[in-house]
Amino acid sequence: MAIESPQSHPLYALDRNIVDGLLAAKEPTSGQMVDAARLFNRYQGFPGATDLKEDLEKTLRLWGFDRNELNRRCRELWSTGYLPGEQLNAQPGSEVGSQVGSGFDSTDSENDA
């Protein structure tokens, strides 16, 4: 029986930087909570990135959360219309929070005419 070696996730390097930032946060922002929840989902069941998964768990302990509390807070954020990258004081139509999706989205519609 062969022993499987851990896999390397293609987004590990980017995610590692995010997790390092999460570990440094004493009080998580909305975006940091959403990032943590997203990364928990991405790496759940993934056969590798053990250090990253352990650091995500450590982050929750530092914040005083468990997974259920993180998910509850994220659901609450989404229910208020939260968008990733959105800033609380952003002006309507400003660059921050105005681009959503793949970049192919258009604010101009043929139906507007």
How is this structure best described in words?
- The protein is an all-alpha fold and 113 residues long.
- It has a domain at 12-81.
- Helix content is 48%, strand content 0%.
- It contains four helices and no strands.
- The chain has helices spanning 12-24, 30-43, 50-63, 67-79.
- Helix 2 (30-43) packs across helix 4 (67-79).
Primary descriptors:
113 residues, mainly alpha, DUF3288 domain-containing protein
- Structural class label: mainly alpha
Q: Using only CA atoms, what is the Rg?
A: 18 Å
Secondary-structure element order, N to C:
HHHH
User: Helical proportion?
Assistant: 40-55%
**Arithmetic mean of pLDDT:** 82
Approximate shape? globular
What percentage of amino acids are in beta strands? under 5%
Number of contiguous helices: 4
Q: What is the quaternary state of this protein?
A: single chain
Q: Give the strand tally.
A: 0
Q: Alpha-carbon distance between the termini?
A: 66 Å
Main pleated sheet: none
Low-pLDDT residue intervals, each spanning 5 or more residues: 89-103
SSE topology sketch:
Blueprint: H1 12-24, H2 30-43, H3 50-63, H4 67-79
Helix pairs in contact: 1-2, 1-3, 2-4
Q: In summary, what is this structure?
A:
This is DUF3288 domain-containing protein. This protein is mostly helical.
